[in-house]
Amino acid sequence: MAAVDAEEELVIPGGDEPATGTPDSLDKKSRTEFNKLQKRLRRLVGLAITDYNMIEEGDKVMVCLSGGKDSYTMLEILLNLQISAPVKFEVVAVNLDQKQPGFPEHVLPEYLTKRGVPFYILEKDTYSIVKKLTPEGKTYCAVCSRLRRGNLYAFAQEIGATKVALGHHRDDMLATLFLNLFHGGKLKSMPPKLLSDDGRNILIRPLAYCKEKDIAEFARLRGFPIIPCNLCGSQENLQRAAINEMLREWDRQYPQRLDSMFTALQNVAPSQLADRELFDFVSLKTTPREEATADDGRLDVVNLSI
Ligand code: SF4
């Protein structure tokens, strides 16, 4: 993991905007839509936090802010919940300035200062390293993301953050599931909460239950000063782009399908798959007649239709 050698300084701005509220610039119809969306996102983030015990009393939550729609939305909703949540927790925003060409370094400090959010800007020229490490003709994103994660997780340790919040949402989790299914030979996705590989950070994804289209609309109405990720000129991983398009198409044609797939992620039946590590198929034995309960002979409806 990359060391963090910069002497970073915590900025605690006064802020001249409230942490919640409807943007004044919106007309009546858009305000209603914004309020509805904000309420839905708050509810879903609150539910995910509770379901996975993401945030506890006294936590210092480091919000990783890239400047994209997802991380801005995550920060906004967490600030919003901070006011009414039954537990007290701290929020600190951290942006890693990776020195990509064209990165507008004034945007996030200005935004965070205006919003009154304590923040750090971590400067690290990972872009030069990415260029050196990436083979000719390959996209930079894989190495870039790995270096970003390494730096951010190390920094979380430095500032004593007890949770690291990442802005991945439901559709990212589904896309990762299919990436692993189609190209990785694994049935795995992105969990809402996990321990980092080195066991030193607990990572949380408060937007796990939120749909990308709701986040995109919320970000548009809220008018976040979005910084596009591909300023560096690198292309999105082509396999991920194809899967994202496939999911969008399914969502257009079959509006319930993504919901059903996400429910499936929370409803895994190891005995109905084929992983010998997860379920002990080898030792399967019948239950003696006298021990069997009334339910034991019931067959799964899906199996009956085969
Ligand atoms: S588009 Fe550029 S900045 Fe974004 S992850 Fe890829 S390499 Fe990194």
Provide an overview of this structure.
The chain has 306 residues and is α/β, with parallel strands linked by helices. The chain has a single domain, classed as HUPs (Rossmann fold, 3-Layer(aba) Sandwich), CATH 3.40.50.620. Helix content is 42%, strand content 9%. The chain is built from 10 helices and 6 strands; from the N terminus they run H-E-H-E-H-E-H-H-E-H-E-E-H-H-H-H. A 6-stranded mixed sheet has the order 3-2-1-4-6-5, with helices on both faces. Helix 2 packs across helix 7. The longest helix is centred in the N-terminal third of the chain and has 24 residues. The N terminus is likely disordered. It binds iron/sulfur cluster. The site of iron/sulfur cluster (SF4) has 9 residues, from helix 5.
Distance between the termini: 49 Å
Proportion of helical residues: 40-55%
Individual helix count: 10
β-strand percent reads 5-15%
Structural class: alpha/beta
| CATH topology-level name | Rossmann fold
Radius of gyration: 22 Å
> How many separate structural domains?
1
| The CATH architecture | 3-Layer(aba) Sandwich
Neighbour order of strands in the largest sheet: 3-2-1-4-6-5
Number of strands: 6
Largest sheet: 6 strands, mixed
What is the H-and-E element order? Answer: HEHEHEHHEHEEHHHH
Stretches where pLDDT falls below 50 for ≥5 residues? 1-6
- What does the average pLDDT come to? 89
Q: What molecules are bound to this protein?
A: iron/sulfur cluster
Assigned CATH superfamily: HUPs
Task: Give the CA-based shape.
Answer: globular
